[in-house]
Amino acid sequence: MENCAEIEKLAEKQEAEAAQKERNAEAQALWKEVLLQVEEWKNIKEMHEANLRAWDEECKKLALTEISEKEWPKKPVCPCKPKVSTAGQEQGEAESEQNDNNEEEEE
């Protein structure tokens, strides 16, 4: 009897550790995705700054040639910042909604 109880406790502990390990892996994957999106945003900003410098140089050249400002190219617009993916949060919300629906059906 004591061995069965110990075996069950050990199995439960192993299951809990496996579940925690899986949650950690999911969180780490989500974090890597966020870091990639941050890096992508940095690249977008750098490209925009390069475009601004090129535009500024072109405007200076046009100013020296006395071309009217109406004919100058428009200033480059910075693209919108991409939204951070919240795949893990959306999945958690969907699961909680399913749990809420199941509880309502039971009542």
Note down, in words, how this protein is organized:
This protein has 107 residues and is an all-alpha fold. It is 78% helix and 0% strand. The protein has 2 helices and no strands.
Give a topology summary.
Blueprint: H1 2-64, H2 87-106
Q: Briefly, what is this?
A:
The protein is mainly α. Helix content is 78%, strand content 0%.
Helix content: over 70%
* SSE-based structural type: mainly alpha
Following the backbone from N to C, one meets helices and strands in this order, namely HH
Poorly predicted ranges? none
The largest sheet, given as strand count, sense and whether it forms a barrel, is: none
How big is the Rg? 28 Å
Shape: rod-shaped
Describe this protein with a few key phrases.
107 residues; 78% helix; single chain; mainly alpha; rod-shaped; 2 helices
